[in-house]
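Q&A log
Question type: sequence-to-structure
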Amino acid sequence: MSELAIFGGSKAVTKDPGDIFTWPIITKEDEDAIIKVLHDRSMSGTDLTMEFEEKYAQWQGSKYAVGYTNGTMAVLAAMFAVGVGNGDEVICPSVTYWASILSAYSLGATPVFADIEPHSLCIDPNDIERCISERTKAIIVIHYLGHPANMDGIMKVAKKHNIKVIEDTSHAQGGFYKGEKLGTFGDVNATSLMSGKSFATGEAGMLTTNDLVIYEKALASAHYERFDDRVTTPEINRYKGLPLLGMKGRVNQFSSAIGLVQIKYYDERIKEIRKAMNYFWDLLEGVPGLQAHRVDEKEGSNMAGWYAAAGLYKPEELGGLSVTRFCQAVNAEGVGCSPGVNNPLHTHSIFQTADLYNQGKPTRIANASRDVRKLDLELPQCKIANSRSYGIPWFKHYRPEIIQEYAEAYKKVALNYKELLKDDPGNSDDMGMGRWYFYSAPADSKES
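Response status: OK
Response body:
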């Protein structure tokens, strides 16, 4: 009988994982903080939110912070604050979550997609200049799945062309790149703090910056009740008392209350996550077909809280075995393993043909000076990302005996790949390859 569980062998994973995947960690301190907000009837207030903003800014290493309803609102406010407007172009990697760029439409701006690096899955600095035009206003950098983007290369291009840089640390709060904290390289940083992220507060977003004008424009964008004489920027202070994006975007104080508790323990908790995840990859070192999606921490970089962890797949080392068949076999071993990452955004109809605002042409090019969709033809790494990646367990605690079983499942399948070749159906979207968003999943699978 084959060793592989998919052919009748014993499963690699047999132990009860317990709470090794449970996140966020909630204690009585969090519960008491929520109850106090209830008893104070301050759910729609701002006192706790402003306290959380102050502490978050200090922790982030930035002068200013603004809290929002969610990360999407924070990204929209960041674009507005750096001056993105009608007809402007915003460059973004195609492999990311839609919230990183889709709100550009609300400003009349045009998303332009750049390729990614195969090892980091982050935007490729060498592809950015191909995307630049006289209308380029900003580059959005996502530290994808916790992996720091190449900020040296990105900032070099941005400075050369005088383009604003928006960092999106929704996957990497608290991470570092060469000794400096992610979110402090660009002009402004936006992040999601929803319950699935490594920094989880329920449902919230945060914007940080060292630029006073960006801060004030971000505050005025959706915090009308705080847009008063404290805001000094001349171009906007005549509109005080009104949200400049036409919507209320403040975070509710339940999330702020949780955030004030979580921030006290966050660095300690993600340090244990990194220990667990690095141990998993150390166990798989040298296994053919499997490459770690991680950084060398000796260089002063790290993977933050290792959000939505993934591995890099090398089919050429496994006889061309498709990642979908590989994942089927890993799943049979007792591990929730999905092929692929986020589907490339440029392949979605909302970025190709959708006319969302009845302008008579696709929204993406309705206000553009060129048809940027032609640039989508040159995204080779984005197009193969789903066939070259797969999900791995996102461990929240360092428990070697549990982690060893999960690592063994991947190793076992990779070392017995020849048995899987004969009935390999190949990669197919019908087999769940890639997704538009990361979703909540069972505790023994890849969470989002």
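Response note: The two ends are 36 Å apart (CA to CA).
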